[in-house]
# Entry
Amino acid sequence: MDKIGRYTFQEYLKVVEDFHGNPSPGLVLGGIMVDYAISEVPAGVLFDAICETPACLPDAIQLLTPCTIGNGWLKVIDLGLFALSLYDKYKGDGVRIFVDPEKLKGWDEIANWLYKLKTKREQDKDRLLAQMQQAGRAILSKRRVQIKPQHLGKTSKGAISDCPACGEPYPKRDGAVCLACQGESPYIEK
# Structure
């Protein structure tokens, strides 16, 4: 794999490190997957993305496509799978890219990483990244998909109102008070 998107492999490693904090194997493999998916989307199609894990792979999608969590074009649906789909944002037809276990034979360091057969400390990161670069798309498979209608388009927050309990603006659809005041806040009050 010489290029990932518009970057050489080495340039992509630097972009990943700058964005993510380190040259994460998940972002490297994710970049290869995103590059493959983009090549399968017809030219001129406006696409959205679904990522099936919250770990690393969403960052690759955000680095290499206009799809971000912030603009709503990237949805993370945690199925626990290292897979992604790019699809026509209006029609829902697209492509799903995933690591194919049948194709991992001969790529032991990638398998060790993916299946967590070695701890991060035990992994040979240079060898792992070299195997990812050598394997490229050869360890991936694609499948045509049709996205369910409920996953198409952006989800609107609807009407916004001030929470009668805390006073902050919140989506009125969440109930009589905001979700934080309903006990969903991750914070301990001090």
